[in-house]
UniProtKB/TrEMBL annotation:
Protein name, UniProt field: MET23 protein
Homology family: Belongs to the methyltransferase superfamily. METTL23 family.
Species: Polioptila caerulea (Blue-grey gnatcatcher)
Molecular function per GO: methyltransferase activity
Coiled-coil stretches: none
Designated gene of the protein: Mettl23
Source organism superkingdom: Eukaryota
Length: 198
């Protein structure tokens, strides 16, 4: 899969995150949701269909991915869902002008370690602006030595592991893939780490 095509494929992580959203669908109406690295936007589309106010985003440098976001909205009768070009690690007018957010979604954004800090920089910025918000993310375990723990500490973020069985996503048909390699999928919720006493 070529770099420019990452966002044109429904990766197993997107299916697992969509399952989490479906399992929590009663809490979504009225929630303000931003999906980052959305690609074909399965989680964001599910959130929107469940009543959330969704904004989809992908890199401003990947117009094909932004087109995929728009196509997914049109195919799912969601023509009014905004699609923004947001590049991780870059403070842009689009990022600065985002409306308040309750939930940030990201499926398989922790793919390439060179992007990890840019992703968490962007997440930290969004959480600082929206301290009550959470980042719901699924990721595929591709290497035992890829970790974001040090970066979470650096950016004063904390994570909670969410077991897949707790929302019915541990089934083979949900988290499987015909792609070669390991396909262990994990989910975590990232939020601002509160200092003691606050």
């Amino acid at each position: 899969v070529l770099d420019s095509q990452y966002g044109t494929y429904v990766w197993p992580c997107a299916v697992v995150l969509a399952q989490y959203l479906w399992a929590h669908r009663r809490s979504l109406p009225g929630k303000r949701v931003l999906e980052i690295g959305a690609g074909v936007s399965l989680p964001g589309v599910v959130a929107a269909r469940c009543g959330a106010q969704v904004t989809l985003s992908d890199s401003e440098e990947l117009p094909q991915c932004l087109r995929s976001c728009r196509s997914s909205c049109l195919m799912n009768r969601l023509p009014h869902v905004p699609v923004l070009g947001l590049t991780w690690g870059r403070v842009s007018p689009e990022l600065l002008s985002l409306a308040p957010i309750d939930i940030i979604l990201g499926s398989d954004v922790f793919f390439d370690p060179k992007d990890f800090e840019d992703i968490l920089t962007t997440i930290y910025f969004l959480l600082e602006k929206n301290p009550h918000a959470e980042f719901w993310t699924t990721y595929q375990v591709r290497s035992a030595d890829w970790s974001i723990e040090a970066l979470l500490h650096k950016w004063n973020l904390k994570s909670i592991h969410v077991p897949l069985y707790s929302f019915g996503a541990d089934k083979e048909h949900l988290a499987s893939s015909s792609m070669p390699g390991r396909h262990t999928i994990e989910m975590m919720i990232i939020s601002l780490a509160r200092s003691e006493g606050t």
